[in-house]
């Protein structure tokens, strides 16, 4: 059910982004707006990222098999990384295009392009909220990256709106002809925001691909295990993310005189408690070790003669 909803959100975003990209590009060309054309480039990147996320979610939803016993969850991680890379590419394309336009004389954008941009902002912000809600509900980094891609598109549209307003009325109002280039300046500013968004989105994907541990979850798992009768010591706990779930590795020290059967039953009990508390933990691998710590004898009671 969760995968189907994420797929529907992604496909909806793909279709909307394609229509908006085509509309913005045509409006940018006819309305002589570099910012709007740059915004269209970002929307095309949106559409491509939605395709990547769609495929990432589709692959990640496959059941574990013999070759992939931990499942395909990291397909979403790779998709999130690719979306961030696309955002960086879109930002660089916008900068190059806008910078080139600043060295060529051109007329101010048409006033009607402002109406196009306002419609885009409303639609893209709505898409952002819908997709992000699904991403947070089902803990999907790929869908979250896709949502922020829609927000980045809304931001570039707002920057384009401001730039077009200044380019249209600024030169006459402030007697500064060069303000006509505010359209291009807005596109460059928007690209910087997009670049920052891309880096923020790519960071968790990189950490996941490098098997970085989640110290907060590791401490929580350690606390659960420590309260299970029979667990003498917890040597180490690692919690690494894989797609929408987590993989736990931990070392438990138990009484050395426990039988293999008893130690196995104890590890099963620890696993059950952990997964019951945190359902998104997919696997718990426990290594059992004997607790060979020396026991300190109680001090002998001393008697004093009056």
Please, could you describe this protein's structure?
Strand 2 (245-254), helix 8 (260-277) and strand 3 form a beta-alpha-beta unit. 66% of the residues lie in helices and 10% in strands. The chain has helices at residues 2-30, 34-60, 74-101, 113-138, 141-174, 182-209, 215-226, 260-277; strands spanning 233-242, 245-254, 281-290. It has 2 domains: 2-209, Alpha-lytic protease prodomain-like (Up-down Bundle); 215-290, 2-Layer Sandwich (Alpha-Beta Plaits). The radius of gyration is 28 Å and the shape is elongated. The chain has 8 helices and 3 strands. Helix 1 runs antiparallel to helix 4 (113-138). With 306 residues, it is mainly alpha-helical. A 3-stranded mixed beta sheet has the order 1-2-3, covered by helices on one side. It starts with a helix and ends in a 16-residue tail after the last strand. Mean pLDDT is 83; it is low at 301-306.
Q: Which descriptors apply to this entry?
A:
Alpha-lytic protease prodomain-like; Alpha-Beta Plaits; three-stranded mixed beta sheet; 10% strand; disordered C terminus
- The main sheet orders its strands as 1-2-3
Q: What's the architecture of the largest domain, going by CATH?
A: Up-down Bundle
CATH class of the largest domain: Mainly Alpha
Number of distinct beta strands: 3
Residues in helices, as a percent range: 55-70%
């Amino acid at each position: 059910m969760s995968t189907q909803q994420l797929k529907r959100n992604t496909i909806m975003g793909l279709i909307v982004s394609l229509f908006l990209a085509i509309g913005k590009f045509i409006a940018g060309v006819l309305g002589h707006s570099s910012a709007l054309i740059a915004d269209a480039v970002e929307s095309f990147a949106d559409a491509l990222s939605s395709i990547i996320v769609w495929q990432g979610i589709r692959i990640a939803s496959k059941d574990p098999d013999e070759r992939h016993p931990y499942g395909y969850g990291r397909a979403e991680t790779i998709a999130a990384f690719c979306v961030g890379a696309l955002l960086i590419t879109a930002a660089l394309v916008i900068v190059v295009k806008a910078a080139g336009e600043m060295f060529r004389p051109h007329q101010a954008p048409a006033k009607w392009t402002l109406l196009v941009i306002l419609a885009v902002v409303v639609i893209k912000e709505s898409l952002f909220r819908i997709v992000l809600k699904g991403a947070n509900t089902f803990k999907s980094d790929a869908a979250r990256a896709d949502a922020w891609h829609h927000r980045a598109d809304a931001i570039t549209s707002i920057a384009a709106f401001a730039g077009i307003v200044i380019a249209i009325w600024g030169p006459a109002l402030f007697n500064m002809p060069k303000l006509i280039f505010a359209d291009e300046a807005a596109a460059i500013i928007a690209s910087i925001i997009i670049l920052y968004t891309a880096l923020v989105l790519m960071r968790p994907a990189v950490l996941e691909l490098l098997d970085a541990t989640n110290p907060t979850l590791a401490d929580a798992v350690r606390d659960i295990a420590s309260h299970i009768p029979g667990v003498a010591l917890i040597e180490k706990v690692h919690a690494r993310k894989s797609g929408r779930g987590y993989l736990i590795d931990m070392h438990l020290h138990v009484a050395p005189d426990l039988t293999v059967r008893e130690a196995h039953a104890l590890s099963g009990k620890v696993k059950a408690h952990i997964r019951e508390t945190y359902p998104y933990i997919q696997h718990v691998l426990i290594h059992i070790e004997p607790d060979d710590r020396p026991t300190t004898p109680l001090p002998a009671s001393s008697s004093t003669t009056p």
